[in-house]
Inverse folding.
């Protein structure tokens, strides 16, 4: 077994910064490939999808491996386009370190800021690589100032450039004889280490260059400081310096191969026979072929095959161990985000905002509706945030989106992989609902209006913003069903799942969030009552309580940062007003106006299209999700796709299989 240390490294960037080209250069420098592929020509190792090669962008994360100085590096190339931020989110859970790529020409861009904030929040050690120094317009000092101002002041340039903007541009790393470099390094390290500062102040000669490098490595591994490298993935300038410091400054994976099994699934794909293949990062223990492993919400299955990443290839192995990334077969119910064995990762999994847009997918041939549902279900396995919804009444399929580019990807994937031609309805905004007050309801066993062998009482209350849904119990243990107080997992999950599933469609059809749901009453008849009685009754009680509480519909807002020429300020401000944007601050540095504020998510794409004409093509817009805010005016509604427990008669007739001719009392 290969017991060399492992480093799971993410390559992240704003789209077109050159991270896929950098991946190719790293593989070439490590001897994994004999020829560097081209993004423009669609010949790179990690962009394997046809649409990726066609458009020259990364859509799905991809894993490749190489060896640096005895360290096995699993490099994960991630999408840079904001429409595919969910792919990046899943990768963040498995990284030991990251390289954030910035274009020397375009500089710090909107997605760069989003990525850096997230890397810092998750405390992921990060190196910064400024790419494209061979391109006309490449910057050095000005870009360092921008990085310090927009990303983090805790940076240290690791070398200098010459012939910037020319194909012959070079990068020269600093060494122990560079007095300015060592002085800046001391100042930076002292900012985060009082003991280091005290030692240096007492005797400047007491700290050697090797000690400075050791301190730099220690603080980089703690994500306190971020070394900055310059270079070109096309010419190779600066790449060797980056390679040397990837293992010198970033931490190797930790984990006991003999410990309890713990891993995280960050990607799902389908094999040639249609079987699920799970990409797992192992944090502890060893999984072997034919081992039975626990995963997700109590599932267990036998691993039938294993592959790991080694020296640019995927090779079959008998096991996958702590620190490695492996592909596992045999786990039919596995889902992205599932833990294998015990959890050793933070409970927070959602690092980016959820999708705020949705659309209806329509097959060109009505007869393809069933096949389309099956295909979209498989795509949702690979990207759960697609959040496939089916409206049984209207026979429509809804998918969630981050942006318009995702439509093209879904359309191309359905055509190429499934032979399905589809169109899309107009994209609409996904709103949410929050309780406006407190509501309560009870359905008692034995009452004529309650056909179920169960008593359920529920109270719904508002909760702090961004806290989601909290479930509580407030019942006498003696009156609780056995499946609750004896913690029989299957039935307990059935009750909780019913509450969460029901709350996906509130009074106006939007998902209900930021609320506390408390079970206040519970009763049963032994041995006749079943979990099914509670599952069927809970939606009626919950929605009755929610109706009493009332809800407020909230729409997503994006914060924006806009730079525009002074002479375009007036027309742009007027356009923002028409789009219901609210500028909150403005500044005028030199010949530019800077506007910041919030704009409804539904208007962002429209504004992006208008901006070039409004600003003579010189406007620079950055947008990112901000928050949800109550809708002004009439609340928008969303067509229901459930059995509508708000309509008691229709719900009971459907759930019980009754017809109006049977004369049941359902008022």
């Amino acid at each position: 077994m290969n017991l060399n240390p492992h480093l799971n490294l993410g390559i992240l960037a704003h789209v077109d910064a050159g991270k896929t080209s950098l991946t190719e250069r790293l593989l070439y420098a490590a001897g994994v490939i004999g020829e560097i592929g081209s993004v423009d020509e669609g010949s790179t190792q990690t962009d394997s999808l046809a649409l990726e090669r066609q458009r020259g962008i990364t859509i799905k994360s991809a894993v490749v491996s190489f060896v640096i100085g005895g360290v096995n590096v699993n490099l994960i190339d991630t999408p840079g386009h904001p429409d595919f931020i969910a792919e990046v989110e899943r990768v963040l859970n498995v990284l030991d370190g990251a390289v954030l790529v910035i274009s020397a020409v375009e500089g710090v861009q909107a997605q760069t800021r989003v990525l850096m904030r997230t890397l810092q929040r998750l405390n992921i050690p990060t190196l910064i690589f400024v790419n494209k120094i061979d391109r006309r317009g490449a910057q050095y000092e000005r870009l360092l100032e921008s990085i310090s101002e927009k990303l983090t002041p805790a940076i240290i340039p690791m070398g200098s450039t010459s012939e910037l903007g020319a194909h012959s541009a070079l990068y020269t790393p600093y060494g122990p004889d560079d007095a300015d470099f060592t002085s800046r390094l001391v100042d930076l390290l002292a900012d985060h280490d009082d003991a280091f500062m005290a030692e240096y102040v007492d005797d400047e000669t007491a700290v050697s260059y090797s000690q400075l490098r050791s301190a730099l490595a220690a603080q980089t591994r703690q994500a306190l400081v971020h070394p900055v490298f310059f270079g070109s993935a096309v010419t190779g300038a600066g790449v060797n310096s980056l390679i040397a410091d990837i293992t010198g400054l970033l931490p190797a994976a930790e984990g006991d191969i003999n410990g309890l099994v713990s891993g995280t699934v960050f990607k799902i794909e389908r094999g040639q026979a249609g079987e699920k293949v799970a990409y797992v990062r192992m944090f502890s223990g060893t999984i072997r072929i034919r081992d039975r492993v626990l995963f997700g919400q109590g599932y267990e299955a036998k691993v039938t095959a294993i592959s790991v990443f080694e020296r640019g290839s995927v090779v079959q192995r008998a096991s996958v161990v702590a620190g490695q990334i492996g592909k596992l077969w045999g786990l039919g119910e596995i889902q992205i985000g599932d833990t294998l064995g015990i959890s050793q990762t933070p409970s927070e999994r959602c690092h980016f905002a959820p999708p705020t847009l949705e659309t209806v997918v329509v097959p060109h041939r009505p007869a393809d509706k069933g096949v389309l549902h099956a295909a979209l279900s498989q795509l949702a396995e690979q990207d759960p945030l697609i959040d496939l919804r089916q409206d049984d009444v209207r026979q429509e399929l809804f998918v969630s989106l981050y942006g318009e580019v995702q439509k093209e990807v879904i359309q191309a994937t359905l055509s190429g992989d499934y032979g399905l031609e589809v169109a899309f309805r107009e994209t609409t905004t996904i709103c949410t609902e929050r309780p406006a007050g407190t509501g309560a309801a009870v359905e008692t066993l034995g009452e004529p209006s309650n056909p179920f062998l169960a008593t359920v009482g529920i109270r719904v209350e508002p909760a702090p913003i961004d806290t989601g849904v909290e479930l509580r119990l407030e019942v006498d243990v003696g009156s609780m069903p056995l499946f609750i107080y004896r913690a029989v997992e299957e039935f307990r999950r059935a009750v909780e799942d019913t509450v969460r599933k029901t709350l996906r469609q509130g009074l106006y059809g939007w998902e209900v969030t930021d609320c506390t749901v408390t079970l206040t009453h519970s009763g049963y008849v032994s041995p006749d009552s079943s979990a099914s009685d509670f599952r069927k009754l809970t939606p009626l009680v919950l929605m009755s309580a929610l109706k009493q509480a009332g809800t407020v519909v909230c729409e997503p807002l994006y914060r924006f940062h806009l730079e525009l020429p002074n002479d375009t300020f007036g027309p742009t401000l007027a356009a923002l007003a028409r789009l219901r944007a609210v500028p909150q601050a403005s500044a005028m540095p030199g010949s530019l106006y800077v506007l910041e504020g919030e704009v409804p998510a539904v208007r962002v794409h429209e504004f992006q299209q208008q901006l070039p004409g409004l600003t003579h093509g010189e406007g620079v817009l950055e947008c990112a999700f901000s928050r949800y805010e109550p809708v002004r005016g009439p609340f928008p509604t969303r067509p229901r796709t459930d059995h509508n427990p708000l309509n008691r008669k229709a719900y009971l007739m459907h759930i019980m299989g009754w017809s109006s001719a049977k004369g049941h009392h359902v008022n």
Summary: The domain at 433-549+641-662 is CATH 3.30.230.10 (Ribosomal Protein S5; domain 2). The chain has five domains: 6-174+224-249, 262-341, 357-430, 433-549+641-662, 553-630. Residues 531-549 form the longest helix (19 residues). Residues 268 and 278 are 5 Å apart (CA to CA).
